[in-house]
Amino acid sequence: MKLLATFLFVHVVLYAHPHIFIDIYPKLNLHNGKATSISLEWKFDQMTSSVLIMDYDKNKNNKLDKKEIALIKRKTKKLFKAQNYYVKIITKDKNIKIKKLDNFVATIEKSGRMVYSYDLICSFDVKDSIVMFYDKDYYIAIKLKKSFIEPLNKNLDFDIKKVDNGTYFGYAMFNKGIK
Amino acid sequence: MSIYNEFMSQIINWQYTLNDSIASYIKLVNENGLSAVMVVLAISFMYGLVHAAGPGHGKALVSFYFLSRGGSYKKAIKLGYLISIVHAFSALSITFVIYFILTGFFSATFKEFSNISMIISAVMIVSVGIYLFVQAIKTKKEKEQADFSQEKSEYAVAFAAGIVPCPGVMTIVLFCISTGNLYLGVLSAIVMSLGMGFTISLAGILTSYASSKSGNFLKTKGYLLEMLGAIFIILLGVFLFTVSAQILFTPQEVAPAF
Fold this sequence. Notes:
The complex is a heterodimer of chains A (179) and B (258). Chain A contains 4 helices and 10 strands, in the order αββααββββββαββ. With 179 residues, chain A is α+β, with helices and mostly antiparallel strands. Chain B is globular and about 65 Å long. At the A-B interface, α1, α2, α3 and β8 of A face α1, α3, α7, α8 and α9 of B.
């Protein structure tokens, strides 16, 4: 009976599940042991990409021109800000505020995947910092692999762990310091 | 990580892989014909099965319903598949209305439709809960129930759970359309919904099994379990209504849809 009650409760509380799958490629831009910004690439799954392309590639040339990118940027920026950029940065038990999103560009890869590239302007000590990527609404599943980070952050000594708060999952970079 | 969370995390990994595989095979359909179609349909079924294994109000509703009403495994399968039929029909019709009739952003418009249908679903769930609660009180007085009213409540549960369209189904259909395979999109959506129906049926079967294990308790104080299930259904409806209303009144540009 207890098991049944637990099963039922869990299914009421945790009713969200992801429909969009994103590979995320973060690069910490460093200066004197501090990160001054994080450059990010979001690669959408193939099927979501096709919906986004239908939505935004208005002239159907399979490329995004300035006007189309501006439209995506306008729509995405507000959403990102409302979702705290799908990022949480902690260093020395302090939450680091993201000042703004900058240099937003959207492109369509040859494979048909939609890619959003942008910088998150923030400042924090890299040593013992944690950078988490997740969607608290759990509509998006964010995937982060070591192989996504390593080529972009050759000077960084880091580990990856799963973020699990019970209602959503994500990934976190545990930064030990600069090599 | 607890075993449950580890399982949920694994479900996401499987979905990530299956989602990518479906897309890759759909792209091959134009070259490889029937063999690729069969693979797409097989993966779509698996995708639906795994997708529904994550948390969802459909399984919760079915579980509470079986907690309240009890029922055979056959009935659980029937209800699971009734839900999946309504689910497929709802997602397909909304997708086609957006694609062929409306102009605007697919994902955002679908999300709007989805939120409205979630509110309808929530109201229906509360109504079903109240109906079951009243029936439970009646049961306390007279043991016998009319089969006809039970069937009616099953259809109400199927409609309430299934009406909320799945964005995953819309995405498959639109992706197939973008590759020039509209019919494959419709088929994949139906097969994916059948996969979801399988998992939802399983939730009903498990609850039915758990209820049957309560032994003598059910025979003597069964109406208490019926009331409990009905109360859970009402709470589920209220919870869904609150969340959906909150989302509906969130400015569209900051609602999580791309």
